[in-house]
Amino acid sequence: xxxxxxxxxxIRWEYLVDEWDxxxxxxxxxxxxxxxxxxxxxxxxxxxxxxxxRFRWAATPITTTTAVIYTIPSVALFGILxxxxxxxxxxxxxxxxxxxxxxxxxxxxxxxxxxxxxxxDAADGMGMSRVRRTLGVDLPIAAPxxxxxxxxxxxxxxxxxxxxxxxxxxxxxxxxxxGLRRSFWTPMVVxxxxxxxLALGLDLVIHLVGRWLTPWARRRAx
Amino acid sequence: xxxxxxxxxxVLAQAAARRDIGVFEWLFDPASWTGPAGILRSLxxxxxxxxxxxxxxxxxxxxxxxxxxxxxxxxxLATWAVTVGRAVxxxxxxxxxxxxxxxxxxxxxxxxxxTALLLLALPPIxxxxxxxxxxxDPAAVDAARAIGMRERAVLLRVELPLAATTVLDGVRVAAxxxxxxxxIRAFLGGDGLGRYVRDGLGQNNDGLVVAGALxxxxxxxxxxxxxxxxxxxxxxxxxxxxxxxxxxxxxxxT
Lengths: 222, 254
Prior knowledge:
The complex is a heterodimer of chains A (222) and B (254).
Chain A: H1 13-18, H2 20-54, H3 56-71, H4 74-85, H5 89-113, H6 117-125, H7 130-163, H8 172-181, H9 185-213, H10 215-220
Chain B: H1 8-12, H2 23-27, H3 30-33, H4 39-70, H5 75-84, H6 90-103, H7 111-134, H8 138-146, H9 151-181, H10 195-202, H11 206-233, H12 236-253
Helix pairs in contact in B: 4-7, 4-9, 5-7, 6-7, 7-9, 8-9, 9-11, 9-12, 10-11
């Protein structure tokens, strides 16, 4: 489970060279599925959070629904979609988007609720429009929560994309399944390790971009 | 080895069904429930593995979380459990361990999937135990010390009972996640409830895929409900005292 195990002799190094096209294709597909799913998740979660923040009565049904979606087993959700979407990208993307919503909506709502009422009143008192206040005052204060949610959603999506290999998608997960079918360990080790490295890498990238975008949050952080 | 060699045992015992079989037609056919590829057998396989994983996770995470919280140490582990806990890549971990296990002669089952699921189950149980023991009513803890209880008794007879509801909630979350994730085992050289989705996909049989998916989802939902029922059956005193403290704690966390 540690990337260092990639140095284990069960890896055949020529494979990395010979099959590089296949590996990079799987990596690109993995990244694409992750980015598409998280991006759609963010769009959907933004809308749901806006509704939950605007109408108090809507908050509980929205969080409950996203929590219920989150508990649906991934293999089951991929499987149930097969008769409708076949083995297309959507069979993978729809569940993946669904799984991001709980974390994203929870953090988005928590972030905007963290804006102190006094700050909001001050912005209103200065005559800021609603849109300007949301973008110029609320958003910077909520940003650390949004970034934290985005990190968790991205890392868990990278992990779940491998499971989507069971419905013919899944990027690096396909290497794992192919390797198992052929009793050839190298693709299994490469696919698993790369997906773990991809998760850690994306986590680091979002963390660094987030720090760069929110220099004010660093001072407050304990 | 020939292509498909890795799955040869599974192929022999594949769940077979007519291509155009209806989901409920298959589910309500007694023949689907018996035999080596039957639902009862698969349910047993899944339940056994999940129970073993949860038992091991409780045996590790509850004592660890309780002792660290009592000693007021291990902040780092708790933070780690919050962030990493949501994102354990079970499939990748198991996929990485399968070749290692096979090469060491342990077989594709059950070491890799057990380990991967254990990593998934530990964070929620540890986190809930840790936060609930730390949040145990300081007045009660002080009173226990004042009447001469040893540290061990303070933890076992005051802090842990106060934390019981929250600990059980962590076990419920872990159990639902484990049961929901276990079906990947069918794609990593094992069987269990995931086999019908696998076999259905292999035979291009949508009815079997959907029926398998329903079985997995139902078992996961039933697991969650079973733990909720156990929580309700806890002794009244534990339930009330435990439920009051963590509720304020929960507000602080979000």
